[in-house]
Amino acid sequence: MDCRSVVHRILEFAEDEGAIPANPMRKVRPPRRPVDPDRALGQARRRALTPEEAGRLLACFPLFWWDHVTCLLGTGLRFGEFAGLRRRRVHLDRTPPVLHVVDTRYQAGKFGSGFKPQPKSVASFRSIPLAPQVVEAARRQLPPGSGPDALVFTGPGGGPGHPGGPGVPRSTRTVLSHSNFRRTHHGALARLADPGAQLRPTARRTLRALRDGGPQRVDQLTARLAANGRRPVRPATVAVALQELRAAGLASIDHGDQDGRGACWSVLLAARHPLLDAVELHGAHDFRHTFSTWLEDAGIPTRVIDELMGHGRSRRGELDGGSRIGLHYRHTTPEMAARAVAAIEDRLAIVLQVAEAALEKRPKQATLKVF
């Protein structure tokens, strides 16, 4: 398929330049893809998230990235289109609010990176109506008084060990990097796989001590943490950490009085979140799969979904099996666009509700002072 695609593009360019009368590759049938039995029988993991699953995943992202993920879920943009989105392409005061896909960021490894004034294909030039949650996210990200060429969504600033890079102030709006977002996405998946990753430092140390040493009392855990050569921890701090582990379902009291003093604590096996086994997640493109699936689930016509996704059709209309003349006579009405916006709005409301509820249950990151 890759070889056929390269030859097809070369000959297509030659045809456009008048070097050949027609592209013969159009008559060469593409090779059939090998059949995956699991996918054919519906046993393979899907690429799209339900609103509840998307909310659980969003809760594992740092708060800085919540607006970014909300926009990707609510627009189905390719990451390059998202990272290249300029202020002049976003019209939040229109009815309905829309964004225009034009400028695109590209990252080609050793061949360089930058911005180009056009998306992937002619079909990718498109207008996407925005749900209210996406409008709010874009407003929060746009700095007041910025010029028309300002990027809407940017990366984090710098500082030592910061994702934005050393020497970059934290308040600086840096260009989005696909690799940086992918690392952040993988970090969110790691937090789903191990609930202990979201604990405060002392609770994580206590959890490791329980896993290494088996059931222990508070005084035994305190001595074990002090023996590790790190800064000693007070028994009261360990007791608070144990309650945090208990609230997270990672530890239990075997015996003792009700408040846990003198009790023997043991670790509980953390359950891997079921969505990791049900969904095949890779990165930002998962949200594009999700956007398209949500629209189809809401009964939006396939042709409208194709337009919003920026999918091109062959000269025979192969994408949806329709004829070219049929595609010519079908149009997207304002009512269709409103239905698409309503479908995304309803699902994003669930996403944010689930994410905020999960965030409220998470232990606060404030420093605990024990006197």
Oligomer: single chain
> What would you report as the Rg, rounded to the nearest angstrom?
26 Å
Helix content: 40-55%
Q: How many structural domains does the protein architecture include?
A: 3
Mean pLDDT across the residues is 83
Low-confidence stretches: 158-164, 314-322, 365-371
**Could you say which structural class the secondary elements and strand pairing correspond to?**
mainly alpha
Number of strands: 8
Number of helices: 15
CATH architecture tag of the largest domain: Orthogonal Bundle
**The top level CATH class name of the largest domain:** Mainly Alpha
Order of helices and strands: HHHHHEEEEEHHHEHHEEHHHHH
Summarize the structure in short.
With 371 residues, this protein is mainly α. The protein has three domains: 2-33, no CATH class; 51-191 and 276-359, Intergrase catalytic core (hpI Integrase, Chain A, Orthogonal Bundle), CATH 1.10.443.10; 199-269, Arc Repressor Mutant, subunit A, CATH 1.10.10. It has helices at 2-16, 37-40, 51-59, 66-75, 79-83, 132-141, 178-193, 201-213, 218-227, 235-247, 275-278, 285-297, 302-309, 324-329, 334-361, and strands at residues 90-91, 98-101, 104-107, 113-116, 126-129, 216-217, 251-255, 264-267.
Can you put this structure into words, describing what you see?
By secondary structure, the protein is mainly alpha-helical. It folds into three domains: about 30 residues, no CATH class; about 220 residues, Orthogonal Bundle (hpI Integrase, Chain A), CATH 1.10.443; about 70 residues, Arc Repressor Mutant, subunit A (Orthogonal Bundle), CATH 1.10.10.10. It contains 15 helices and eight strands. A three-stranded antiparallel sheet has the order 1-2-5. The chain has a three-stranded antiparallel sheet with strand order 6-8-7. Strand 3 and strand 4 form a beta hairpin. Helix 3 packs across helix 15, helix 4 crosses helix 12 and helix 8 crosses helix 10. It is elongated and about 85 Å long. The N and C termini lie far apart (about 70 Å). The C terminus is likely disordered.
